[in-house]
């Protein structure tokens, strides 16, 4: 695995991909109601004048009340600026999980804010790290590897991992494969057009992983949504494109529809390496 270390999962792969946020003109009741409604133990505050981010945790609320908050008139209208901590540092979406863990341990944080292009885009908590750990080490097997030409939606390569397909799973795989074909328009909207929202499709315990790269999209049907297999699919898709770059570029330049079925046996060793 010389091109990519599959152990180096990044923040974007494990984070909760949204941030529950209040503006800095919010008040005490906004914070407590938001935390109660969303069943969370902390809420982030955005100061849009300085473009800085702060945080209020349940511990901050308890400390505030113990320091005389109960005695304040109009407690519900106390500005969040009297409780919030910060400004807090944001970690880049490309930061590896091992560095995030070291950062959280050093500062005794239970959660960190993740940024993309200097804008808050997600949160990594200790719970996210535990979920990632369970997913990463859960045994997962590749079952079918496919490559699709994005211009025509034609499948131009396929490999079936026969050794990983049990008889009683074949019907599920057929149904899942049919489901993938039925979502071609969705795949165009969400993958090929670059919105990036769709990275996998799950049916019961089977999963299809998607990896768009230039003119093509790699697809891997497997038994679980496994981070290691996702990273191996990323490597295989890039390697497949680079091997046939001239063909794909010529097809793109001249609006040619690809019908060729490419040999991808040379890629299979990627999925058998540990």
Ordered list of secondary-structure elements with their pairings:
Layout: H1 11-14, E1 21-23, H2 28-38, E2 42-47, E3 52-57, H3 58-66, E4 90-92, H4 97-107, E5 111-116, E6 119-125, H5 126-137, E7 142-149, E8 155-160, H6 170-182, H7 184-192, E9 200-203, E10 206-213, E11 216-222, H8 227-243, H9 245-253, H10 268-272
Parallel strand pairs: 1-2, 4-5
Antiparallel strand pairs: 2-3, 5-6, 7-8, 7-11, 9-10, 10-11
Short description:
With 274 residues, the chain is of the alpha+beta class. 36% of the residues lie in helices and 23% in strands. The chain starts with 10 loop residues before the first helix and ends with a helix.
Explain what the structure shows.
The protein folds into 2 domains: 11-134, Roll (CBS-domain); 139-272, Longin domain (Beta-Lactamase). 36% of the residues lie in helices and 23% in strands. It has helices spanning 11-14, 28-38, 58-66, 97-107, 126-137, 170-182, 184-192, 227-243, 245-253, 268-272, and strands at 21-23, 42-47, 52-57, 90-92, 111-116, 119-125, 142-149, 155-160, 200-203, 206-213, 216-222. Helix 4 (97-107) links the parallel strand 4 (90-92) and strand 5 (111-116). The termini are close together.
